[in-house]
Amino acid sequence: MPVTVRIPTPLRKFTGGAESVEANGTTVGDLVQDLESRHAGIQERICDEAGKVRRFVNLFLNGDDIRFMSSLDTPVKDGDEISIVPAIAGGTTA
User: 5-34: b or e for each residue (b if 16 or more CB lie within 10 Å)?
Assistant: First the structure.
């Protein structure tokens, strides 16, 4: 059983509108590469030119932020769930 990847609305144009897709790999980085092979263009929205997760994108593995784990080297197993969450900027003014 592969890993389920939850796709945010702004990236669903790459997945044909799908809210979630399946991906295979042994690390989060492998999953991102597998996503790219199936949904061309999505990787550059997640990773920067250096191959690191973009500052304004958060990836959660089973609810835990991978930045506090091993980032793209974080291991995954069958049945895990990755959520791609774009950071939301903003605030209030007085």
Answer: bebeeebbebbeeeeebebbbebbbbbbbb
CB 3 within 8 A of CB 18: no
For position 15, which CATH number holds?
3.10.20.30
Q: Whole-angstrom distance between the N-terminal and C-terminal Cα of the chain? A: 50
Report, as an integer, the average pLDDT of 20-31: 97
So what's the pLDDT on residue 88? Answer: 75
Question: What pTM value is reported for the model?
Answer: 0.90
Domain count within the chain? 1
Domain limits for position 33: 3-86
How far is it, in rounded angstroms, from Cα 57 to Cα 62?
16
Q: Output the CA–CA distances (angstroms, integers) from residue 4 to 80, 89, 94, in the order listed.
A: 6, 26, 41
